[in-house]
Amino acid sequence: MESAMPDTAAAYEPTDRTVPTRSRDRASYDREVVHAILDEGYVCHLGFVRDGAPVVLPTLYGRVGERLYVHGSTGSRPLRMAGRAADPGLAVCLTVTHVDGLVLARSAFHHTLNYRSVVVHGIAHQVTDPEERRAALDALVDHVVPGRAADSRPANDKELAATAVLRLDLDEVSAKIRTGGPNDDPEDLSLPYWTGVVPLTRGYGEPVPADTLAAGIALPDYLTTL
Question: How many other β-carbons are positioned within 10 Å of the β-carbon of residue 190?
């Protein structure tokens, strides 16, 4: 298994693709900030070009050190394209976004969102090493619920044969964050409209057992502490 060695640098190096053209003060290349945003999310959007047209797919992901893993059917388009012998690797753009608040300004123009996002550019490669594939699939399960991979049946050979995994190294990466209230123009401050922020929070409901759950199986600790 090829190891995803940690990078000791505190920040990612900005590139032409990771420096925003607007609101550059909101950009961050801090490694811990990027990791925190990625680790809190569940769904990424994976963008690539197929037959000259852009394609963006929502999918689950998992992080192991300085690598992201996504998985899918061996017949899915990005996974087939990344495995082409004549063109190894697939140029992709992967994004993760959290919306933290609705920012309501006095003017329609200044309405916006408070958010945290990460954008990753790079070349995705199919994972063929069996050990790395199993570790990646465990990371995908644990990314959804930490501790779940060890508390479920691992994929068998038939399931592994039907599943492909893509690896994307965190090399060309940036985060972008907006916080705070609305930025109304000075001439609008006296207008008689409500203005402020409506916070958005994520919560978890009470776990609902499956109809087929056998009697005597208790709720796992990792769910009670989720």
Answer: 7
Domains and CATH numbers, the chain: 24-196 (2.30.110.10)
Spatial distance between the Cα atoms of 151 and 171, rounded to a whole number of angstroms: 32
Q: What are phi and psi of 197, to 5 degrees?
A: -125, 135
pTM of the model: 0.88
pLDDT digits (tens, 9 = 90+) for 59-104: 999 999 999 999 876 666 666 666 555 557 899 999 999 999 999 9
How far, in Å, are 61, 110, 178, 207, 208 from residue 25 at the CA level? Answer: 28, 17, 9, 41, 44
- From CA 159, how far away is CA 4, in angstroms rounded? 24
Fill in the amino acid letter for 207.
P
Which pLDDT tens digit goes with each residue over 131-170? 999 999 999 999 999 999 999 999 898 888 888 899 999 9
b/e code 93-102 from CB counts within 10 Å (16+ = b):
bbebbbebbe
Cα 110 to Cα 52: distance, rounded to the nearest angstrom: 35
